[in-house]
Specification:
Length: 322
């Protein structure tokens, strides 16, 4: 930096202001400094800057699976906000493994990230307590943290969305409505089962429920079992986008009313188009990131727990009669 100051004929403080984007430097002087920087190949020492500021300008994002369309959209929204705040986003997939989730969080904390945004895989987050007590803020998104950890959360109305989907099928004359959900240990899957069951009331039949990972052969076997019942289902509610697409393949052209939780690409181009309960991963990710940066700016208020609404998008599959 001293070489740059000498080459530009300015004080060291002037170079510092130009490098850090601070005001108070004449445009002509700033241009002269930038030319000297370019000519000398100067680059700022980020490690020294971090030590001075006490921040690394990085945020850690732990997500279920970056390849999942829902989480890729959510992650991009987090990245957009992070970039707008002049920070770098570090991200990793837990693959629905609590051990992997813990390893990622500990790795990010070892790298001194300024804050964490987490889509949790496990139910025990007591290991986060030392980091939270040390001042590292965390925001949980899509699913809440385990008991004893009270931090900002951004969720969608999972149970309410499942009620909307089930009532939509009931309104179109269906009384035998099957539910294919993800593993019941997953918070969102459990809440969607709750909403489905509440909407059905006395019509609920345990034989029309399957909750496990969306493996194609298993989904096909579950559908075949249900359709072989004396009173088979006439409609299907699927618990997330991956299950919806797996179920469409497993149906192999058989017509069945269908409502899926989560919108997905090309859902409107199928015939009939797929009716869905849509949540907004862009809003979820953006709000989570804004909450985090508000904490980094000094907000010490009580934890906020946001629950975003969902909506039914009618495209034809959910409106088929029994």
């Amino acid at each position: 930096m001293k070489d740059v100051a000498s080459a530009a004929g300015v004080a060291l403080k002037t170079v510092s202001r130009v490098v850090n984007g601070e005001p108070g430097v004449h445009p002509g002087t700033a241009e002269r400094v930038r030319e000297a920087i370019e000519r000398l190949g100067y680059s700022r020492n980020e490690s020294a800057r971090v030590l001075r500021r006490g921040r690394t300008s990085t945020v850690g994002l732990v997500i279920e699976d970056l390849a999942d369309p829902f989480y890729s959209v959510l992650g991009r929204a987090v990245e957009d906000v992070t970039t707008a705040h002049g920070c770098l986003l570090l991200s990793g997939s837990s693959n629905e493994d609590p051990v992997r989730e813990r390893e990622l969080i500990r790795t990010f904390c070892a790298r001194r990230v300024d804050g964490l945004i987490v889509v949790p895989a496990g139910e025990d987050h007591s290991f986060l307590r030392p980091e939270l007590d040390a001042g590292t803020p965390a925001v949980f998104v899509d699913r809440p943290p385990g008991p004893g950890v009270d931090v900002d959360t951004v969720l969608c109305d999972n149970a309410g969305g499942a009620r909307l989907a089930t009532r939509h099928l009931l309104a179109h004359g269906h009384r035998r409505i099957a539910f294919l959900g993800d593993r019941p240990s997953i918070h969102t899957a459990a809440r969607r089962l709750h909403g489905y069951r509440a909407a059905l009331g006395r019509l609920f039949d345990e034989r029309l429920v399957s909750m496990r990972a969306p493996v194609p052969r298993d989904v096909r076997a579950d559908l075949d079992r249900m359709l072989a019942l004396d009173s088979p289902p006439t409609a299907l509610f699927t618990g997330n986008g991956r299950i919806t697409m797996t179920a469409l393949r497993a149906l192999e052209g058989r017509r069945m009313a269908l409502v899926g939780f989560d919108d997905f690409e090309l859902a409107d181009l199928l015939r009939p188009g797929v009716t869905v309960v849509a949540q907004d991963p862009t809003s979820m990710g953006g709000l989570a990131a804004e909450l985090l940066f508000r904490r980094l700016s000094g907000d010490t208020g009580p934890a906020e727990h946001l629950r975003l609404p969902v909506r039914v998008i009618r495209r034809g599959s959910g409106e088929l009669p029994p």
